[in-house]
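subagent[fold] <- orchestrator: predict structure for attached chain, return tokens only, no commentary.
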Amino acid sequence: VGYPAYYPLPAPCFHAPAKAVLMDLDGTSVHSEWFWMWIIERTVSVLLRQENFRLAPEDEPFVSGNSVSEHLQYCLRKYAPNHTLEEARDIYFDVTRYEMAEILAGRGKNNAFAPSPHLKKFLLKLKETGTKIGLVTSGLTEKALPEIVSAFRTLEMGNPCDFYDAIISAGTALGPGTVGTLGELEAKPHPWLYAETGKVGLGYSAEDGCTFAIEDSAAGVISARLAGFPCIGMEGGNIRQSGVACLCFAICNDLMDALPYILG
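subagent[fold] -> orchestrator:
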């Protein structure tokens, strides 16, 4: 931490058909923005002790797409100027942990995390062809696992931990009385998450030329490419706006559109 690092950007090597696919979670496999906006709303509700509190429609651009602290700071300025960011963050993480535990327990908010269109059909086609599938996310496990569990429950696909050949997240948060992991410090666009999922999780390195990554964010595309994997970009994220479309093997509107590139 605090030391600059430089990584080469190797030309990706790939020979169809793929033997493995590395998939991002948020924005690629599931859509969760509305849920995290609801968590912000619940945080302010608890902070103000107003159970019926609701965010206004004009708040949406300020409570999505940025950091948790930025979302909360906006709400504090507008709705709770007498409270501190530290108070709000404590409540936010308490609310998040409770809701995540409820989802894992089969309760919680219904359809909290919506599967991407055709996710089930896409995943089952990969399984049918014997392609290994890894899930790669910068999210902490306590947030990431309930997301994919909720999506699989909606799709009636069982336990995602049994379905995927490997799941690598940013791990656990470092805090008093807890053991943190390096993943939290070296999230995307750092290449380690993709490198670990490919080589350790699925048994294929970039040099094998048989693995594709699928991403919807600029950070994810850079992470996959720095790890040496060719990447298919998905529309709907910030790939084009961030100027990294040139790093993508192709950009698709739908997961099913990516299959011809993967399977040859």
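orchestrator: received. Logging for downstream: The chain has a mean pLDDT of 91. The longest strand covers residues 20-24.
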